[in-house]
Amino acid sequence: MAYFFKLPAITELTIGQQAALNEPNAIAISGGPGTGKSVVSLWRHIRNYGTGSKRSLLLTYTKTLETYLAASARSENGYAGDAVDRTYWWTTHHVARYDEIIVDEAQDVECEKYTIIKLSSCIVSYGADDQQIVYRNKATTQQQLTAIFPNNRSYVLDENFRNSYEIMHFVRSLFPNKVVPQSTLNNLIQAGRRGNKPILLVSNNIEAKQIKAILDIINQFKSATHNIAVLVPLQNHVTTFANLIRSSGIQCSSFSTDKGSLGEIDNVHVTTFKSSKGTEFDTVIIPDFEKMLINIAQLTVIDENDYYVAITRAKRNLYLISSFMPSFLERSEQQKLTYSKEIL
Fold first, then answer.
1. Which candidate, 207, 218, 257, places its Cα nearest to that of 234?
2. Residue partners of 27: CB distance under 8 A and separation at least 6
3. I want to staple 281 with a disulfide (CB 3.0 to 4.6 A). Which of 6, 157, 178, 227 is the partner?
4. pLDDT tens digits for 37-83?
5. Cβ neighbours around 20 below 10 Å, total
6. Which of 31, 4, 6 is nearest to 17 (CA)?
7. In this model, does residue 259 exceed pLDDT 60?
8. Residues 341, 200 contacting (CB under 8 angstroms)
9. Which pLDDT value is given to residue 61?
């Protein structure tokens, strides 16, 4: 079954989102995960074509997100759907003039690419969040973006529409260096965005138990309107887990490198932390979670931001499967209250 996505109606946008959408000049959108940066960029792009006011281009970072945004745009306007591309691919293969270029996940693009983008449009808008940078040596920070585009009107989005209170409470306890404002948690409570605590499943070093848990979770939630992701650090992990899922008779899509191709995203999807950027899933499963600190320390392509991105893809349910009880989840009694634990 295909990935289920319902673009919020333009009338459902908040006052802040509407203000950014209606701004006639170039905009700079910032905000944490789930605050609607991509939604605003998407609606701005769609409306440009719907009103005929501008011929715009929507650029994003990953192949997964390109597929996701193009399908969403196409559901409202075919021309808008055809004008979605990856930033790195477009700046080396498809450069052309546009009335407006909108860069999603702008923090993940090297500064040099903005020289090409600025030469291709008089209006360059963007959305960015430094806390979600996935390649620090190729990033352009929000401060640098402000220097490159000093005249863009700034819009800061602070209301989380994706995650439950329980997931963001867990995120704040796991990543104390990340900024998760108390106001964000308070707003989630006030909006009634409550759910299950993240669940840690401990397999006691029995790989078969981890595999069974993944399949059981998928079978429990699988439906036409429920999106499930298995998120892993590296490309070879994608192949391994996608093959395990398919061998059990479950249809799934998978993607592991932006050099490959990705057709339709299924509502069971396996991909890397980095390639999950900008997407969201009702249920997220992260295997081998006990390796988080080791992976951050030893893998050159993984850091804390990758795990932060992966965990914040979860809207309702977050399952972390671990061979043993990780010490980084037992730093305090208060932290232990942010998740549930089950022994497989």
1. 257
2. 20, 44, 125, 126, 152, 153, 154, 155
3. 227
4. 999 999 999 999 999 999 999 999 888 888 889 988 999 999 999 99
5. 25
6. 31
7. no
8. yes
9. 87
Please report how many Cα atoms fall inside a 13 Å half-sphere around the Cα of residue 66, on the Cβ side. Answer: 23
Rg, the chain, Cα only = 20
CB 270 within 8 A of CB 241: yes
* Cα–Cα distance, 286 to 169 (Å, whole number): 18
Q: Which two tokens stand for residue 244?
A: 């395990």
Which two three-digit tokens encode residue 50? 């719907």
Is pLDDT at 244 greater than 60 in this prediction? yes
Q: To the nearest whole percent, how much of the chain has pLDDT over 90?
A: 84
Distances (CA, A) of 295 to 199, 231, 291, 303: 21, 14, 6, 8
Strand order in the sheet with 123-128: 84-86, 56-60, 100-103, 123-128, 27-31, 153-157
Q: Cα(265)–Cα(227) distance, rounded to whole angstroms? A: 10
What's the whole-model pTM score?
0.91
Residue 260's pLDDT is 52
User: Mind listing the domains of the chain with CATH numbers?
Assistant: 10-157 (3.40.50.300), 165-343 (3.40.50.300)
260-300 per-position pLDDT tens digit: 555 678 999 999 999 998 889 999 999 999 999 999 999 99
Amino acid at 178: K
